[in-house]
Every structure is written in C-alpha cells, then in structure tokens.
Amino acid sequence: MRIDKWVFAFALLISCSGAKAQSLVQYVQPMAGSGVATTPAALKHGAGSELFANTIPAVTTPFAMTQWTPQTQTTEDKCIPPYRYSDDHFSGIRGSHWLSGSCTQDYGSLTIMPVSGHLKTAATDYAVSFKHTDEQSSPYQYSINLNAYHLQAAVTATARCAIMKFTALKADSVYLLITPNSNYNQGFVKIDAASGEIEGYNPVHRIYQGWGKEAGFKGYFVISINKTINTAGTFANGKIFSETVINNQKSVGAYAGFKLKAGESIEVRIGTSFSSLAGARKNLQAEIPNWDFEGTAAKNKAVWERSLSQISLQTAVEKDKRIFYTSFYHAMQQPRLYNDVDGSYPEFASVNKIGKLQDGNYYDDFSLWDIYRAHLPLFELLRPSLVSDVANSLILKGQQGGWLPIFPCWNNYTSEMVGDHCSSVIASAYLKGIGRFNAGEAYRLIRQNAFDTPASKDDYMEGKGRRALNSYLKYHYIPVEDSVPDAFHKKEQVSRTLEYAYDDYAVAMMAKKLGKAADYKQLIKRAGYYSNVFDKGTGMVRGRHADGTWVSPYAPDNKAYYITEGTPRQYTFYVPQDVPGLSRLMGGAGGLENALDSIFAKNEYWHGNEPGHQIPFMYNFTASPWKTQREVRHILATEYGDGPGGLSGNDDAGQMSAWYMFGAMGLYPLNPVSGQYLLSSPIFDKITVRLGNGKIVEVVTHKTSKTAQYIHAVKWNRQVFNNNYITYDTIVKGGRLDIYLQEQPDKQWGARPGMQPKGIPQNVN
What is said about its interaction partners and assembly (predicted)? Predict the structure, then answer.
C-alpha cells in the first residue's frame, strides 16, 4: 500500500485548519471489543469464546499485512487473541496476523519486549504488570509506560512494517528481546551486532482441514536498530547462548543489550513479509527508509483520517460517533494484504512457491461465512478497487489450488464453517460491474464447487470442494444420516442446506447474466431447496432423515446438532435469496410477521452470531416495515457500546462492525447478490458517504421530535421514493436520500408488496 504525498498533506491540512476540520481518528477506540461482552444478547446466548469480540488494539493501516498490538498472551493458540483487556501483565509488542474478532489463531508473528536491569528471557520472568492508565491507544500509535522497568515503549506502522521507540526514564542497562511466537518449537533468528540487524521467521501452521501441517510459508521479519549494540546473543526455553543464530527449539529468540542514559531512546524498524527475508528487507526500505518515528506516525494518522473521512456524520450524540468510527476501524482490519511491495506473494496452498503480481494486491484471511453478509458489501460501495482485488485473489486461489476455497485463511484451504460463499462474493462483484477479472474463469470455478466433488479423497481431505455436496444433490437437502465427518464443523446438515441454497442462487444469477440458461434453470431450482428442511407443522426448519421423516424430539429454542452455532428458530430465517418464498411457507406475510414477532418476544434473537443478522430487516417483507425500524434501533442501542465489552460477540473480521455501520446509516444488504439495500431509520442527522467511484451520497434525516424513529416518507433526489429498499445501481450514481421520521409508526409506508423486494421465481421453465 503506497502512502501518497497528498495523504500526508491531508493530515497537515486537518492539523492546520483548527475548528474548521475535525479529526475523526479521535473517535476510534481500539480497546473496544477486547473485553468480555456485556450486551444483553451476549449474556443470554453467548458462552466461552463467544463472550469475547476478540478484537485487539491494533496499530495498523487499513487492510495491512501485519498489525502491531500490545501482547498480554504469549501463545498463538486458537481462540486466544494476543491482547485481552482483563489481563494485567504486558510481555511485548507483537507483529500479529490475528484474524480480527475471530476464534481462529495468530500465526507467523513476532514479539519485541524491552527489559531493563538484568537480562531475562523467559516470559514468566520478564512480563511486567501494568494498568490501563499506563496505555495510550489509537489506530496509528500505541504507547505504554512500563513503570517497573522505568521504560516507555511506543509503536507506529505502515502496511507491512513498523517502527518502535523505547525510551529509558533512568540510566540503566536495557535489553530488547526478539521472539518468533512458534507453538511448534520452530522458528529462526539471527542477530548481527555489528550491523544492528536481526532477521528471522516463524513457520505458519494450519488448523481445521490439515490441522497442524505446515502451511507452506513463513512469517519473515527483518529488524534494524539505530543504536550500537553492546551485547548480543540468543536464547531458548529460558537458557541464554552466545551464538548469534538459533532455530527450531522451544521459545527461541535473540537479545540485544544497550547502556542508556535517562531520556535516551532506541528506535527499531521492522519489515515483515510472507515471501522471504529479502522481501521483508525490500518492504522496510520502501515503507520506512529513515529513522523518523514521529513522521511515520503522522503519515499513518493521515491514512486513517483519509479512510474514515469517506463517511461524515452530523449528530449531537458523541457516543454514537465513537461507536461508528470504531466500527469503521474494525471493518478495515481484514482481509489481509499478502504481497510485498514488488508484488511477490506466496502462492495459495503451495509449499514455498512464490508468485508475482502484475498489478493490484493479493489478499487472504477471509472469514467468508461472516463477511459476505455486510462487510464486503460495505466496501463494494466504499472501495470497489479492494473488492476487485478480493475477487481476483479468490480466483487466483482457485486456479493455484484447483478449487475455490470455502473459508481461505493462512493462505490455505480450511473448509471451516458451512456454505460456499466465494460464490456470493464473486457473483456479487460481477453483477455490480465491479473489478476487472475473467468472468468465464471465475464462473468455471464457482460452478465446479456447485456441481462437483474432488475425485481424489486426498484433495477432499485437504478441504477442497463443498462438504456433503453428494447428499445435497441426491436428496435436495442434507439428511442427518450424513454426519459430514471430514470437516471441523461436523453435521450441521440443516444450516448447510440453507446456505448452499443461497450460494446456488448466487451462481444462478451469474449464470443468467453470462447467458448459461441450462445452468441457471437448474441452479435457481436448487436455490429453493431450503424449503426441503422447513417443517410446516412447526413453522420452522428442522433436521430431516434420508427417508423424509423429521428428527424428534424437537426443541426449537435449544441448540441442535444439525444447526450451526444456534437454534432452529434462529436459523429458520436464513433465506436471504427468497424471503417471499419463506413467507409463503409460513402461510403468507402475516405468518412471517408473527414468526419474527415471536423470536423477538421470546428474546431468542442472538445478535452476536451472524446467521441472524438479516432478521430485523425482514419485517420489510411484511405489512409492518415499522417493526424493522424499531428492532434495528433497539439493537443499535443495546448490542453496541463504546467500552471494552461493547461488542455482542466475535466481530468476525468486521462483520459485526459493518452491521452497525449499515444499521446506523439506515440500510442493509439482506441479499448482497441482489444489490438491494433494505431501508430503516438512520440514527444520525446527516450522513455523507464518499463512494469509491467519486460520487457522493447524502442521507438526511428529518425528525418531528428528538425521539422520532419511524419512517413516514422517503425522497430520493427530492422526488417521492415509495420502495422500502434502494438499489446499488441507484446509489452509485450519487444523490440525496431524505428520510422523514415521526414518533408513531406509519403503518402504510413500505407496507405493500409492490414496495418490497422480490424473491426467486416460483416457476422456472
């Protein structure tokens, strides 16, 4: 990622214009989501790791290769982020590849820890107690006072690199400990005291399919220090060595020692890469060529100000601004940049094979089960060039590995979660005309996933292809007799059926535009397979045997083995491609409305998990769209806060945060492929969105009173707008959306079927 000269000028303009321009980065709270969730839905439905948003206070740039975070947890274990707000011991600043807001793993990371006095190399010995009042955290810089060591530590970053500054508050010996955080007793470090350079790597390992195998690449780092090293060596498992090279032992690392006067500082520049040590060195030379901590921090701040300024808000409620811009910051953590400045990147699912891009960027770490819903649709509007790179990255993965991945992370197949949402991402981009990619090749790959299973058992075990596709095609649903053994998420047959039906819809829409009539006809029928797991007797989805009988006993509000991370009632509403069809199964729009009423009345709506994120907006398909406005407002007010526990569950690479942004702006992409955004009532007086194509959209809210929240009229470009949804094609032309709110529900606005989105065709000939 290049930092253009005009970006730096933008920061200077902000700093010089005083009251005329307001810094937006001040509203970002990086600690939000790093504590235990305190929202009502989290306390009722969450448990274990689901009670954590699992975000970290990352110093980074948008969609960067490496995030830099204070470290309070030394492991790269699954579901343990490097920083937790409840911890009280600091053990360094980590160059992290943690999937923000996830329950996966960190990988290929390194940590730098300063200590004073005597050399200590075991984390249990050198970790130092701290209080949160000792920390200052922002997207562009983190600093901490390490009182026990009489040291100050600070870090700022670029897309692939960082610069740290360690300052002695009294004269003393100071040591820097450099540790690759391998959980596999691997890693390599070499220190050259004469040149002041340290280099190393941390091999990456897989989880889920292929759990424990090496991923075929490493997290490389090159470190340069601006002060003469007095003493140097290596260590492993708490033991100190005079050798300058060490590898493949437990807790390996290197140390560099200095004598500092009071007020004296050490600056450390770090380059990272997934391709090679040479790549890390090139990245460092390109992004931080000089010793200038303050200048680098100013440039980083400028990048964030520019990014956040794509959406401007007018409101008297400062808390809402803090939550919104913190959400925006969280939404820009992933996907992860993987290529070096020269275009080098590790090819997908390969072993030490390096590719070279001709243009664009290559991305990975796609929490696809989550981010296809609202996160990537947000950037279809804000950063279509990013979405273009995402589509091309996914296609490259399919070409290099032979199959489109289901949930690509650490640059490998995982088959994690359910569904096949590369289909949604690629089809959505293609249908919206976003990006430059080979549509024919893209369709070949998504069609292969939809119709075929790898002939090789080894390929299937690696995570290639949809799980249980053969059963889905044979029965038109996945019966519970197929336990889906070759997956981390085993069983979950009903959820898989529902999500495959949506993915088939996505492929069908792409087939239709490409003129592949036979494929379209077959796939659009498969998009209706959701009905085969809908039990009309209960009015909800239910596990089904191969002989067609329903699983008994049935408890709709208990978690079930055939449902992914939820209950049958919660997953019943996952039919984004055909809400009118679901409504017909429920007896009509009134039945759908009653079912929606029931999930909220019973307090069974769980906002902390993604399958329900469309539920509040589904009232727009009934005679009571005003209930969408009520429920969305309630969720915005109760399930998001501006403290460490203010996210309702795993943020999952920014999906929870993107939901807040859309909801607060008064629209939501319930069916992302359709290009339709359901309308609700914004919480801001005015929203100005600078789209990625240069157009501007304004959303202006008119209230009859301070507490008005119900829509009674909408205008687009000053003309009456009757639909309760707006389309992508309309939005990207730019314009003004006026939304008029009153105290009481307007039971006519958006209530007629003609004002509402359509579902899939009932009859396909």
Answer: Monomer.
Q: What is the pLDDT of residues 450-470, one digit of tens each?
A: 999 999 999 999 999 999 999
What are the structure tokens assigned to 588, written together?
């009509």
Q: DSSP states of 125-178 as a string?
A: HH-EE--GGGEEE-SS-EEEEEGGGTEEEEEEE-SSEEEEEEEESSSEEEEEEE
What stretches of 539-694 adopt beta strand conformation (E)?
540-541, 667-671, 676-679, 686-690
Per residue, the 3-state secondary structure of 246-291, as one string, reads: EECCCCCEEEEEEEECCCCEEEEEEEEECCCHHHHHHHHHHHCCCC
Kindly write down the DSSP assignment for every residue of 701-763, as one continuous string: EEESSTT--EEEEEEETTEE---SEEEHHHHTT-EEEEEEEESS--SSTT-SGGGS---S-S-
- DSSP letter at 544? B
Can you tell me which residue has the tokens 């909800």? 540
666 vs 445: CA distance, rounded Å: 35
* 3 state SS of 451: helix
CA-CA distance, 382 to 691, in Å (whole number)? Answer: 5
Q: pLDDT tens digits for 543-591?
A: 999 999 999 999 999 999 999 999 999 999 999 999 999 999 999 999 9
Q: What's the rounded Cα separation, in Å, for the pair 569 and 604?
A: 8
Residue 582 CB partners (closer than 8 Å, separation 6+): 530, 534, 572, 573, 575, 592
Q: Regarding beta strands 696-703 and 735-742, do their DSSP bridges make them parallel or antiparallel, or are they unpaired?
A: parallel
Q: What pLDDT shows up at residue 714?
A: 98
pTM (2 decimals)? Answer: 0.96
Determine contact, residues 411/217, Cβ cutoff 8 Å. yes
Name the one residue in this structure whose structure tokens are 């504590």.
35
Polymer length in residues for the chain: 765
Residue 8, burial from CB neighbour count under 10 angstroms (0-12, 13-18, 19+): middle
pLDDT value of position 1: 36
